Sequence to fold (91 residues):
Amino acid sequence: MSTTADNIIEHAARLAECKPEEVLGHDRTMHIANARAVCAYVLRKHHSWTFQRIADHFGQKCHATAMWNVKKVENHLRLYNMAQRIIDLQC
Fold:
């Protein structure tokens, strides 16, 4: 496992209050799946990993799962940013 991925997975696991092995596994419990999705997003957007490389690293069958995880985080970030702008306008 690469040092970059190790660090990201360890940080995500700590924040999600789970073990790094769980983030790398196939557990679909929300907090673990979300940690896995955030890892995929960070590896893709900040370290330029391909979807296939992300999928391979997490033991996923194909790159579509990595694509879905990145898209999921992007959508959540968009919603958060929209909410933040509305809050800022109200203050």
Summary: The mean pLDDT is 94. The CA atoms of residues 27 and 42 lie 20 Å apart. The helical segments are 3-16, 20-24, 30-47, 51-57, 63-90. The two ends are 46 Å apart (CA to CA).
